[in-house]
Write a structure and sequence with these properties.
The structure holds 2 protein chains of 2 kinds. By secondary structure, chain A is mostly helical. In chain A, 64% of the residues lie in helices and 6% in strands. In chain B, strand 12 and strand 13 form a beta hairpin. The chains are: A mainly alpha, B alpha/beta.
């Protein structure tokens, strides 16, 4: 058994026997993910399709094409009726549209009275009133264009293609702007939070070794510092990967049974592994830095906890960054947890390619390199100080 | 074997330093290193194991410069420098493993250390659950894995019960008899007196006194022990600087009181006291140590 193998084995045994650390690393994120996924289900869930129901009173009885155009409107549904309803809110019909009996005259310009009258329930929000108005205007514009085209001897297809310019306006549902649902937000967010929590057990073992002079003894055994510290990183990296697998499995398999949306893993799993590994490397570097900075176990625990919570709070872990004000969103970009989260969301939500995780991975690895350089400088200085 | 010449080292704190220390440890010798807290013993141990680099002076082992991780030097630190969550066997397997030796030799050394320190029945017990004495034994056993030619023990019996202390000292004597040189720092003078061939007394980073134990203890025949009948009167005892010991012998201090053996005996006989037996006194290490430390104006 070589020094590295022996050290990795030792670190693994120490970690496996540290029940407090295992609870923090596995149970805590599991509970957070479950609770937050269920709690945020409505806030971050897919919005139900907007459907506004209203009464249609056709007093004109002369323009079924206009009624057809009205019924084509995506967000409106009409229930025909003969009489003007007295109350609009009683049976979930929140507006009424009346084709007045002077509709034809108004259309031809021989009557100044309106051809169509809209009435709204008092509780109908202004946004919905504007939407209904716009939809009716759109239906009328389409109907009128067809009418004009027909009167000039063109057919409906000409009106559709040449006058209405079908396809002229296209709504592009930009993948980059996709919002994660509750599970897509909670699983990577609390997974990242837990991955960074390895700082506590890792820095604790380093400080215990330093305080109990085990580190000094190992050096008298001729063990290189790189092996002593390097051996600590391997089991914790594997723990981070195990966290990744278990939390994704929780999101994909358990949460749907609890009534939350399931996490789809029909994504680039290798890209997920890459961003998970980069996150782990950053977390290990942070832990090493804390271990190098802290002198006592109390300091290590306090610094690890405080830094993790701060990075999580500003990094969009506790509150999704997209609901934050612009200033806070800019601040979020300073947190390594946000870099990691952006990488995970690129894969899990936007089915992103390797190119889309390149930047988060580069930021994480760059940050890790800086943290490690500082740690090595601090450890070297500490060694000479005795 | 080990030769330290003109060692000087300074921490940032001025009270913890080593100033111009020179020491020699011969093959198969036990050196007792004594000194009060803060004397610089642990710093000197760190220099001798290569954990610290002296700002001036040199340390060699067999004429080769001492470096950190020297295979012939093993340290037993004051602290329990092992892993409480690992068992005794796992601790030994780990420390044997980092030596990068063939697996067979690792196993042999582990078994040897377990046998030597009588830890066989505690092999599977977590180190953190051992008694203080057993923890000391494990701390000691780990150093034996290196099969050192020079074993340095830094206060190895602190807070240890008498049984475990006796066990540890016996084991050290056996090792020494097999050729291992030992440097032993301790507050317990009786331990050093019973164990060491040579002694060095250190205070404020300096070696105040060093030499073979027998020379230090017999340096001056500074008192005599006499069996008397009857006991001298209190005024006579006071005049002759005599104190009655619990075993019935009277001790008369000569050195520092301007008395000789002849003047004391003549005065006793003239007072009608019969001298039945007489022997020269040997100094205890404690006296040497205290006179040395107080002579330096410090304690």
């Amino acid at each position: 058994m070589g020094a590295l193998t022996a050290s990795v084995r030792k670190e693994t045994l120490l970690l496996v026997r540290d029940w407090h650390a295992l609870l923090v690393l596995f149970l805590m994120p599991g509970l957070f993910i479950t609770i937050m996924s269920l709690a945020l289900q409505e806030q971050l869930g897919d919005q139900p399709a907007l459907q506004l129901s209203g009464w249609l009173i056709d007093n004109s009885n002369s323009h079924p094409e206009f009624v057809t155009e009205l019924n084509r409107q995506e967000y409106l549904s009409f229930t025909p009726t003969q009489d003007q309803p007295l109350a609009l809110s009683g049976n979930k019909k929140l507006f009424s549209l009346t084709l007045n009996n002077n509709f034809t005259a108004a259309l031809e310009g021989t009557s100044s009275a309106p051809g169509v009258t809209l009435r709204f329930a008092p509780e109908l929000p202004q946004r919905d009133r504007l939407l209904i108005n716009a939809a009716v205007q759109d239906a009328f514009a389409r109907f009128n264009t067809h009418e004009i085209a027909l009167s000039l001897g063109y057919d409906r297809s000409y009106a559709e293609q040449q006058l209405l310019h079908k396809g002229f306006i296209k709504t592009d549902h930009n993948k980059q702007q996709s919002r994660p649902n509750a599970v897509q937000q909670s699983v990577p967010a609390w997974l990242i939070f837990a991955m960074f929590f390895i700082a506590i057990p890792l820095s604790t073992t380093v400080i215990q070794e330093r305080q109990q002079r085990t580190l000094a003894r190992l050096r008298t055994f001729g063990v290189a510092t790189s092996i002593i510290y390097g051996a600590k990183l391997i089991p914790y990296f594997l723990v981070n990967l195990l966290q990744l697998i278990l939390m994704l499995a929780l999101g994909a398999l358990l949460l749907p049974r609890l009534g939350a949306e399931g996490l789809s893993l029909q994504v680039n799993l290798l890209a997920l592994l890459a961003i998970g590994s980069a996150t782990s490397i950053m977390a290990l570097a942070m832990a090493s830095l804390i271990a190098a900075l802290a002198r006592t176990l109390e300091q290590a625990t306090a610094i690890s906890g405080a830094i993790n919570i701060l990075l999580a709070a500003i990094g969009g872990i506790m509150i999704p960054a997209f609901v934050m004000p612009q200033t806070m969103q800019s601040l979020a970009k300073l947190s390594p947890m946000n870099w990691a989260l952006e990488g995970f969301l690129a894969v899990l939500v936007r089915q992103g390619s390797w190119a889309e995780i390149a930047q988060p991975c580069a930021l994480l690895l760059g940050g890790a390199a800086i943290a490690w350089l500082i740690s090595i400088a601090l450890i070297s200085r500490g060694k000479h100080d005795g | 074997m080990l030769c330290a010449k003109g060692l000087t080292f300074s921490y940032r704190q001025p009270q913890q330093q080593v100033v111009d220390v020179s020491l020699q440890v011969a093959e198969g010798e036990i050196l007792g290193l004594l000194g009060p807290n803060g004397a610089g013993k642990t710093t000197l141990v760190s220099l001798m194991t290569g954990q610290l680099t002296p700002s001036s002076g040199s340390i060699t082992l067999h004429k080769e410069k001492v470096y950190l991780g020297h295979p012939d030097i093993a340290l037993v630190p004051q602290e329990f420098a092992f892993y409480p969550r690992l068992s005794v066997a796992e601790n030994l397997a780990y420390f044997a493993g980092v030596l990068n030796l063939p697996r067979k030799i690792q196993q042999l050394r582990s078994e040897h250390a377990i046998a030597r320190c009588a830890l066989a029945e505690f092999k599977s017990r977590r180190a953190g659950q051992l008694s203080g004495g057993l923890k000391r034994r494990l701390n000691f056993a780990i150093a034996l894995l290196q099969a050192p030619k020079l074993l340095i023990l830094d206060e190895p019996t602190a807070n240890v019960d008498p049984h475990s202390r006796a066990f540890l000292l016996d084991t050290l004597r056996q090792l020494n008899a097999e050729g291992t040189a030992v440097i032993y720092t301790s507050h317990l003078l009786s331990e050093v007196e019973s164990l060491a061939d040579t002694v060095a007394v250190m205070d404020q980073g300096r070696i105040l006194l060093q030499g073979p134990m027998s020379d230090l203890l017999n340096e001056q025949q500074h008192s005599i022990y006499v069996k008397l009948t009857p006991d001298p009167t209190a005024s006579l005892a006071l005049e002759l600087n005599g104190i009655k010991q619990t075993d019935g012998w009277w001790q008369f201090y000569l050195a520092g009181h301007g008395k000789t053996l002849a003047t004391v005996l003549t005065r006793l006989e003239s007072a009608g006291v019969v001298i039945e037996q007489i022997r020269y006194g040997q100094r205890r290490l404690e006296e040497v140590y205290l006179s040395c430390i107080s002579g330096a104006g410090e304690l």
